[in-house]
Amino acid sequence: MDLGHDMFWAYTKKSVSWTISTEPAGVVYFKNREDEARFSVNIINTGADAQPIMYAINNMSLQSAIIDSTGKPVKKTSHVLLLNSFEDTTFYYSFKHMQGKRNFAMIDIENYRPEGIKEIIKQQFAFAKVIQNGGLVPIIEPEVDIKSPSKEKCEEILKAELFEALEDIDERVIFKLTLPTKANFYEEFTKHPKLIRVVALSGGYSRHESNDLLSKNRNLIASFSRALTEGLKVDQTEPQFNEVLDDAIESIYLASTDKK
Fold first, then answer.
1. Which of 119, 200, 218, 129 is nearest to 166 (CA)?
2. Catalytic annotation on 243?
């Protein structure tokens, strides 16, 4: 016969914790002449109980894709995993470099067409908005052919179209423009509130010509490629290579900062 009984409740707190690691850790590099690099993500439930874990992976680059272990691009960026205590899982991926569309257009016309330049600027700014939506700063680069007999007229039309296009954007951009025929032709852009910076491309001019033209344009700095690498050769010794490169950097820096 049960004369009496008693009872009590005992509660334990759920221990929720997990660790996540990548291999290689930190940064994934592409090796020379390769366009794919593998990496993995390992997740361990280090808690005392089974628990759901939301795992998300995002690609912030416009020039690379994340490929899963089956060779297909990752489209679903988040997953919910249910892992038991001290259970783990590993995801295997690859970064694959994609030949993305460069925000660059060449104005290469012998008989200039104003509507053609307008179309190029429209395309440049449309793509700039895509880049801005990805959280990046676009560089708008409508290059004028330095050999065009209509170069100066092209620059006049280009300048007007760029001013008009700037009215339709909310966030700031960078302009990368061919060295102008007239000194200080783009100076107004260097003071525009919607421009972070205006930089000059060498466009096929020699380094000497590029530096001379750049030094005549206030607030314009260099973003040279061809002029920078002029004189560099594959058969040079390391000291020779470094000397030529150092001289190039020094002269371009002076042209960017010491204006005539």
1. 129
2. no
Interacting residues of 46 by C-beta distance below 8 A, sequence separation 6+: 17, 18, 19, 86
Domain count, the chain: 2
Asked if residue 196 belongs to a domain, the reply is yes
Please list, in sequence order, all residues whose beta carbon lies within 8 angstroms of the beta carbon of residue 131, skipping any fewer than 6 positions away.
62, 103, 137, 138
In the three-class reduction of DSSP (H, G, I as helix; E, B as strand; rest coil), residue 70 is classed as coil
Q: Which residues contact 242 (CB under 8 A, 6 or more apart)?
A: none
Q: List the one residue out of 51, 39, 57 whose CA is nearest residue 88.
A: 51
What are φ and ψ of residue 172, in 5° steps? -75, 155
Phi, psi angles (nearest 5°) of residue 155: -65, -35
Tokens representing 57 are 């992976």
- Amino acid identity for residue 216 in this structure: K
Selected catalytic residue, list 96, 153, 176, 216 = 176
Whether 141 is catalytic is yes
Q: What is the pLDDT of residues 183-221, one digit of tens each?
A: 999 999 999 999 999 999 998 999 999 999 999 999 999
DSSP-derived 3-state class of residue 104: strand
Residues 260, 248: Cα–Cα separation, whole Å: 19
pLDDT in tens, 106-146: 655 444 566 778 888 988 899 888 888 888 899 999 999 89
Residues 201, 165 share a domain: yes
| Any domain includes 46 | yes
Tell me which residue has tokens 């690379």. 64
Range of the structural domain that residue 78 is part of? 18-97
Indicate yes or no: pTM above 0.85. no
